[in-house]
Amino acid sequence: MTKRQHLEATLRREMAAAGVDAVIGVSPENVQHLAGVFIISQRMIPDRLAFAVYPREGAPFFVVSTVVEYTARTQSWIDEIVPYTEHAVQPVDGLVGALQDRGLDRGRVWLETGYLPARDGDALRGALPHLEILDAERVLNRSRMVKTPEEIRRMTEIARVWETAVQDAYAATAPGESERSIAGRMVRTLQERGADWVPFVSFASGPERTLIAHSVPDDTPVEPGRIMRLDMVGFFCGYYTDYGRMAIIGEPSPAQRDAYRKIVTLQREMITRAAPGRRARDLYQESVEIGRELGMDFEMDAIGHSLGLRLHEYPILNRFETETLAPEMLICVEIAHAFPGLGRFHVEDLVRVTGRGGERLTTHIDTTEMLVVGR
Predict the structure, then answer these.
(1) Which residue in 116, 177, 275, 334 is a FRET match for 315, CA 20 to 30 A apart?
(2) Residues of the chain with CATH 3.90.230.10
(3) CA-to-CA distance for 368 and 154, rounded, in angstroms?
(4) Are 104 and 110 a contacting pair, CB within 8 Å?
(5) What 3 state SS string does the chain have?
(6) CB-CB contact of 75 with 36 (8 Å)
(7) Which CATH architecture has domain 149-373?
(8) Alpha carbon distances (Å) from 273 to 62, 144, 145, 319
(9) Domain 3-144 CATH assignment equals 3.40.605.10
(10) CA distance 16 to 173
């Protein structure tokens, strides 16, 4: 089954159960999810709204600016493109007309109200007073949770690009090189190998600086015996990579080796337990208990998140989330912990949820032991 077929079947089933006549995606992520096209200007020009509309009955349609009409017609799997003339009318007026023409100006719709600006929401309600607008966030979050085989293939592919770029950038590290230089090489390498951009790089070295959660690399030199902690996000045509890898110049000390093995042991156990039907909050609580069994006073805000068209996709694996994992979800399982006098140790991997438990997909770099570089 293609993603389009999957969407049409699942969304219409959800709409029928809830008595809803259409679901409307507005954000760049949900437009790509529902229409199959990445429109980069949606991120750069938020006023240039697009609306991917799936009715309960009839074919889906795609309301877009005339500026991106060609992109929509040539790349979207939605056949019916409804353009509005940018600057001549407001984007929401284009949506109003499209809904009226198709008899969807009454009844109930799911709309991504969390992304639609308040002024446009007010204009939509004013123009269509007989339309009941419900928030689509939960239904669209759940729709994006499960990945199609093609999405899994693509995200595994870009994860390999991320890992090889990081491995090669680390391998070129020399004693005394600055954090800024090492992180810059990682960014350049990732972009040279296909990333559109690298929106986030947290890189630090040593026992003090690695304690900073989102550390900005600076001119601090990295010397032998100092751990390096990387958490870097890449962006590939709408999809994210978000993994963490540690390295050290020269062999780690026994204490460093023991600390690293503890976080990897905890992470691998949580990956094994990431099976369909498991509640996010239960996995989180188990991580706290296992961490303490390993001798860590372990308690993170979250131990991971789903990944895809958003960086922190739904659900987040935290103490509060009651959502259960589903087959073919892709999640990041992330363990970080600060050890007194040693710094913060960290590992993060892409994991596929299967009936046998979690399957780690980021396997190019062997994370059993900390990566040793600059020998």
Answers:
(1) 116
(2) 149-373
(3) 25
(4) no
(5) CCHHHHHHHHHHHHHHHHCCCEEEECCHHHHHHHHCCCCCHHHHCCCCCCEEEEECCCCCEEEEEHHHHHHHHHHCCCCEEEEECECCECHHHHHHHHHHHCCCCCEEEEECCCCCCHHHHHHHHHHCCCEEEEECHHHHHHHHHECCHHHHHHHHHHHHHHHHHHHHHHHCCCCCCEHHHHHHHHHHHHHHCCCCEEEEEEEEEHHHHCCCCCCCCCCCECCCCCEEEEEEEEEECCEEEEEEEEEEECCCCHHHHHHHHHHHHHHHHHHHHCCCCCEHHHHHHHHHHHHHHCCCCCCCCEEEEECCCCCCEEEEEECCCCCECCCCEEEEEEEEEEECCCEEEEEEEEEEEECCEEEECCCCCCCCCCEEECC
(6) yes
(7) Alpha-Beta Complex (3.90)
(8) 40, 22, 18, 16
(9) no
(10) 57
Task: Give the type of residue at 217.
Answer: P
Q: How confident is the model at residue 138 (pLDDT cuts 50, 70, 90)?
A: very high
CB 358 within 8 A of CB 273: yes
- Residue 5: pLDDT band by 50, 70, 90 thresholds? confident
Please choose, from the candidates 179, 175, 265, 158, the residue with its C-alpha nearest in 3D space to the C-alpha of residue 229.
179
Q: What is the pTM of this model?
A: 0.95
> Confidence class of residue 375 from pLDDT cuts 50, 70 and 90?
low
